[in-house]
Amino acid sequence: MPELPEVEALRDFLDERLRGRVVERVTPVAISVLKTYEPQPSALQGRAFTRVSRHGKFLDLETAPGEADAGATGGGDASGAGGAAGTGGTGGLHLVVHLARAGWLRWRDSVPPGPPRPGKGPLALRLSLAGPEQGGDGGGFDLTEAGTRKRLAVYCVRDPLEVPGVARLGPDPLADGFSPEVFAGLLHGERHRIKGLLRDQSVIAGVGNAYSDEILHAARLSPFKIAGELSEEEVTGLYEALRATLRDAVERSRGLAAGELKSEKKTGLRVHGRTGQPCPVCGDTVREVSFSDSSLQYCPTCQTGGKPLADRRMSRLLK
C-alpha cells in the first residue's frame, strides 16, 4: 500500500508533469473506481492543471476554474482540518485519488488511441492530456488496481474537503506545526495500542502498516504498548523516530519515476515484510503477528525485551 513517502514522491512526479497541461479526456474503466457523480469527470475536459497536492495518502490534482465555475463557491476555509489544512475550494475542480492497498499510477508518454475497453484487467481509470497544440497525443496516466478487492477511489469535487477521507484526516506528521507537544497531546489518555494509533488516519495522516512497523522498530517500542501509558521519554523517542523515518523515506523516493517507487520502498524497510530474516540492528530474528487481513513485523530484542508477542492466529492453527 502506498503510504506518505510514496504518495509524496508521486505528488512531486505528477506536479512536475501536469502543471499547465490540459485535460483531453478522463475515462473511468472500472465501475467501482468513481466515488462521486457530480461534477462528472467530463467536466475536467479542457481544464489546465494548476498544482498537485497531498493530503495524507490522498493525491489532489487541482485544475483551474472554467467558464462553468464563474458563480461557483468553494467549500469554505479548511485551515483547521489537520492533514487537509489549506485545501479550501478555489473555483476549479479537484481530481482526488486514493490508491488504497493495491492501486497504482502508471505514467504514459503516449496514450493508446481509442477508449479503453472495460474488462477484468487492472485498468481502472485513464486520464489523457492534450498535446502541445491541444490536439495531439500528450500522454497521460493510468490508474490500475490488482486483485479482486476493489478499493481504489477517485473523486471529482469542487473542494477536497468534500471527500470524507480527507475531511477526517489528522495532522500531517511532516508539517512544520507538528511539534512534540502536538504529538504528545494526540497520545494523551489513549487506551489503544500504539501500532493501531499510528495507523489511524484521523489521528495522524499518512502512516500505514509498513511505516508504523519501521517507526516502532526505530523507537524500540512494542507495537502492543498502550499509547496513553508511554513515558515522556518514550513519547519523545517515538516522535523523533516518526519524523526521521518518514523524512528518510521521502528523501530516498525523491526524484524517482512512479514505476520505481514500489521497489525503493521494499529495499528501505528494515523489519516490515522481513519475517524470519535477521534484524539489521541486533541480528535477532524478525518475527510476525498475523491478523485477519494484515500482519506486523518486529524485533523481539530491540522492541519487546526478547519476548515474542502472542500470535493468536498461529496459536489456533497449532491447537
Write up this protein:
- This protein has 319 residues and is α+β, with helices and mostly antiparallel strands.
- The protein folds into 2 domains: 4-167, Alpha-Beta Barrel (N-terminal domain of MutM-like DNA repair proteins), CATH 3.20.190; 180-318, Helicase, Ruva Protein, domain 3.
- The chain is 27% helix and 19% strand.
- The chain is built from 9 helices and 10 strands.
- The chain has helices at 4-18, 164-167, 180-187, 194-199, 209-219, 232-253, 261-268, 300-303, 312-318; strands spanning 23-28, 49-55, 58-63, 94-98, 103-108, 123-130, 137-145, 153-157, 287-290, 295-298.
- The protein has a 4-stranded antiparallel sheet with strand order 1-6-7-5, with no helix packed on it. Strands 2-3-4-8 form a 4-stranded antiparallel sheet, with helices on one face. Strands 9-10 form a two-stranded antiparallel sheet.
- A hairpin with a 4-residue loop joins strand 9 (287-290) and strand 10.
- Helix 1 (4-18) runs parallel beside helix 6 (232-253), helix 3 crosses helix 6 and helix 5 (209-219) packs across helix 6 (232-253).
- The longest helix is centred in the C-terminal third of the chain and has 22 residues, at 232-253.
- Mean pLDDT is 89; it is low at 73-82 and 314-319.
Give a short synopsis of this structure:
It is built from nine helices and ten strands. It has helices at 4-18, 164-167, 180-187, 194-199, 209-219, 232-253, 261-268, 300-303, 312-318, and strands at residues 23-28, 49-55, 58-63, 94-98, 103-108, 123-130, 137-145, 153-157, 287-290, 295-298.
